[in-house]
Every structure is written in structure tokens, then in C-alpha cells.
Amino acid sequence: MATVEDQAPTERVTRHELCAALDSLAQERLGMSAAEFMAALKAGELDPYDPTVARLAILARLVR
Amino acid sequence: MTPRSRVSPYSPGSLDSDAKAERTAREFGELMARAINATVSPAPVKFLQTDRDDFEGFVAHVDGKTPAPMQLGNGHYLFVYHRLGLRRPERYLTTLEYAYWYQAQTPEDSWIVRYEYQREPVAPYRYPRCHVHVNAVPMTYQGEKPFPDLHLPAGSRVTLESVLRHLIEEHGVPPLSPNWEEILSATEAAFVKIQNKRVLAPLDSN
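ok -> C-alpha cells follow
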């Protein structure tokens, strides 16, 4: 039987990688950078109910 | 050494080292993967640890290293995201956030139903921390706020297993394993056991 000890190490992701992904997605979907997205989100300038904003906000909470 | 089953017994309690937290979070991810892969999707689901100083990570199906929706057997998609971290002086592994989105296609704006939970929402936040959004408008609804924006209360938690059962029983997603119900019951029991060990009432009861 396979064991937990047999398994590959936990995969890791850096906030830099997540920020790059957020930047790419925010540029593609909303025409803004990751920094601009996070600032606008914090300032309440984005519709939090917009599904794209809500999905990108998930990444933003990981990057913060 | 006694072999450890792939199906985690999952009773970690206090995690006094990051190594223990990492192993427990990985086992948590394996439980989620087992539930998903026995029911609605064979897509890989795993725990990814972020590089924060305080232990944190998430369980999801990923495209690259970012959460992505999985295709289901009925042609629709399920986005599953579950963020974990350590809380309380005892360092309990805690669900910080989850999002289970059932959507028609891969773009998020095709969402049909969204089950969401946030343990630590940014104030002011006047909604149930565990809630569901429905992308529809009842003909009888006359409220000012768009119906899909409403945070419909959903109790203390919506379990992943209940969503998976719902998809199979009512949305026509063909189950992948003949004993999927048994597997879901086992993983659900494991998660309930975890939650019962970590009830932080009343602060965690919303």
C-alpha cells in the first residue's frame, strides 16, 4: 500500500508566482495590473459581486 | 514503521511544527481529492503551500499553480478552492475560506451556484460567513439588490461532499466510482470529526 511517506513533497507556490498569475489574469480580464486590482479592490472601486472580481479576489487574498 | 494508509485518519489536533502542519494539510487535500475523484472528476486535486511566514496554503485543482475549474461528466465545471492556515495559540489547522462554484463553462461568469465561506472577512461585513449565491432571479423577487448578489445563509458549513452528492443526484453528473456513496460518507465523517475538534463557538458559529 502506498504511504504518505512515499509521496512527493508538498508542492509550493510563492506569492511572487501568485502575483504574476494575478497580474496576467487581471490584465487579460480587466485591463489592469495586479497592484491596480488589489488597490481598487481595497478601495471598494470594484463590484465584489462580479464573478471575475470575486475569482481574482481569491488570488489577491493569497498574495496579500 | 507501520504503514500509513492513503486514507488519512485525520485527527491532528494541535500542530506544534510547520512540518506537522504541512503533512496534515496535505492529508486534508488528499481527503478532498479522494472525494472528488470518486465522484465527479478524475482531475488531480492537491494542497499547495504558499511562502508566507505563517503557515498557509490551499487545496484545489490547478492550472499551473493557480486554482482552476474541473470539467465534470455532464459537460459542466466545478471550481473547488479551500484555503487553510493555522489559528489559535494551539495552532489548529483551520479553514480560512472555501469556494465551490458550479459553472456551465470554464469562464467564471458562467457560474450557476456558488457556495462560499470566509472565516475572516474584511469589515464591514454584514452577511453570513457561510452562504450561497444563485445565478437566477425568481419571478416573485422584487428586492432592490440583484438576487444573484444575495448571500443566502447556508448554515455553519456546506460540506464538499454535500455539493458532490447534489451534483450527482440532481445535475446528472455520472459518478466515477461504483462505491462513491461509501467513499463520500467516509470522507465526510473524517471532516466532521475535524470540525468537531475545532469548534470555536460563538466566534466561529456564523
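The longest strand of chain A covers residues 11-13.
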